[in-house]
Amino acid sequence: MSNDAVAHSFNTLGIVGTGAMGRGIAQLAAQAGLNVMLFDVKEGAVAEATAFINGLWQRSADKQRITQAQAEQYGERLIEARDLAALAPCDIVVEAIIEKLEAKQGLFSDLEGIVRQDAVLATNTSSLSVTAIAAACQHPERVIGFHFFNPVPLMKIVEVIPGLRTANDVTQRVNALGTAMGHFTAQATDTPGFLVNHAGRAFGTEALRVLSESVTDPATIDRIMVDQGGFRMGPFTLLDLTGLDVSHAVMESVYHQYYEEPRFRPSPLTRQRLSAGLLGRKTGEGFYRYVDGQQQMPEEPAIAPASPCPVWISQDDPGSAAQLAELVTTAGWPLESTDQPSSAALCLLTPLGEDTTQCALRQGLNAEQCVAVDMLAGLDKRRSLMASPITRPDLINAAASLLNADGTPVSTLQDSTGFVLQRVVACIVNVGADIAQQGVAAPATIDRAVELGLGYPFGPLRMGDHYGASRILTILNNLLAATGDPRYRPSPRLRRRAALGMPLTDGPTG
Questions:
Q1: Nearest to 475, CA basis, from 503, 457, 494
Q2: Is the pTM of this model over 0.70?
Q3: pLDDT tens digit string along 147-169?
Q4: Which of 9, 35, 124, 159 is catalytic?
């Protein structure tokens, strides 16, 4: 549908609540050609919001991103509604008020007595059921979720969530409106967390699980996820940026809404830090300290150089073994090519979802000689290694020195089932596969929404195809076997597609 067609369908958009979200939605709607009526119960809030939005447009005009005429034209489309009844001419009203079910139900009940019967009532809720909000309305068929992300103009995605009784034509028109406002419209079913917040559950919760097991510290986890995983920021930097007062509440909300689904289990670590007021950047301390708003990232431990020793490489994964062999020969260290290592050799293992201990014992190796290397993402920007509890300290240092020989940073972990990257990535892919299995959204929509809404290097299904569905399945199966924790049980979609060699991004839901 063209912008003109949308403008014909929705000429006037009302907004109730002129905080950050309401202002952003108003800005986009006016730029898309709609008249925008703004209402807020707080005295002077609309005037403040209007001045703020006009200021943004004026700065854009000053920088020649838009013309002065455009800035003035957009400004003329902002109209103050003196009271709720003034929203009567609106074709669609978007609420951006407090995140409480009773408040939203009450507002929509009031609006039903004001707007025309064919007017759409849209909620910007991020966590409440659209169906539940609509249940208090006489015409639930016109109620829909229209969920933007903050900051609205920069986050180029909006979730469109029809409730169980939302009319199809309302869904189609709101999808078209979101597109006309310049955003990718991700249609999703009315499930807890909708699409983006649902898909984002694994990143932080599994990182917290790793931290709770004393595998390593927050800074190391963040460095691994950024350097090895290609994420824009690490999970603990993100938790500090969002604030634990927000993040922990979302974790608990989604977990309980899914009736204690283990995949979404929150961590006691965040509850404890929340109680201590260590919320993150906003309080000056969270998982990191902040000085004048700047994150104080601890320095990485120095790696002591080691003299070359014989290196033996497990052939569990021939491709990974070949990459490690090339690194060893390039560094000039002697490489053993025998079936079994000598007693003097550093043994390099390449497990998927196993710890060094289990991997060494499974292969009949002396765990005192063994160090595992995470090969899920290759050896390009960072290398992660871990040793068994009895690995000789000189061989741990030798492994770190070898992997650091070309200057690539190395992270050394305590023995862990699945390193850091493997665990977090496998959980992200698994949650994404289950979202597709449930039919929450189409596979392509899931991936694009997550890339735009969460800034991941790949959407969860593309991430699974990138690393290999069979490898992800192996990681999850080994984690499940080692821990017995059902949070690691593989999604049926992942299991079937890995078995058949099918991409996770293709095909029907199941």
A1: 494
A2: yes
A3: 999 999 999 999 999 999 999 99
A4: 159
- Calculate the alpha carbon distances from 173 to 123, 145, 336 in Å: 15, 12, 66
Whether residue 137 contacts residue 101, with contact meaning beta carbons closer than 8 Å, is answered with no
HSE value, Cβ hemisphere, 13 Å, CA-based, for 203: 30
Listed residue (128, 62, 68, 118) closest to 97, CA to CA = 128
Confirm whether 76 is a catalytic residue: no
The string of pLDDT tens digits covering residues 71-108 is 999 999 999 999 999 999 999 999 999 999 999 999 99
CA angle centred on 379, ends 373 and 383, rounded to 5°? 50
> Can 159 be counted among the known catalytic residues?
yes
Q: Which of 35, 129, 197, 477 is catalytic?
A: 197
Question: Which of these is catalytic: 35, 124, 126, 320?
Answer: 126
126 catalytically annotated? yes
Q: Is 147 a catalytic residue?
A: yes
> What SS3 class is residue 35?
strand
Per the residue annotation, which of 35, 95, 147, 206 is the catalytic one?
A: 147
283 — phi, psi (to 5°)? -110, 5
Q: Which helix (H) or strand (E) holds 157?
A: strand 157-162
CB-CB contact of 157 with 449 (8 Å): yes
Closest to 30 (Cα-Cα) out of 188, 199, 152: 152
